[in-house]
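HUMAN: Please help interpret these tokens:
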Amino acid sequence: MINGAHSIIYSKAPEKDRAFLRDVLELPSVDVGGGWLIFGLPPAEVAVHPSKKNDVHEFYLMCEDVQNVVATLSKQGVACSPVQNLGWGMRTDVTLPGGGKLGIYQPRHARPKAMTVRKLRSRKTPRAEASRRLRKH
């Protein structure tokens, strides 16, 4: 039923932030017209946290070694917040060229297996099945 997720980062400088995702984080992308890039992401997961409000969502990228990511990005002049140990993971916030923040964390919690997308088999009607059998003979 579900075959992917689409996340949106709102930005005051979308061209700069798209370039950052493409050139610095090296995410694969497709141009869907006029320089509007849509980026591929690694396997994802979603969690539901308790809140007093609905319609509040967060987006994080995950990594194997957040200290290494911070060191690599810092060498490229990218500002990162100090790494925080939050128990469930080690997290930093990266400042995007457009001024927004993007969280990156190294999870310490159990992770689900990546979802595999199964193609739905077409439901054959009796008429279509009979027609297929006739063509075989």
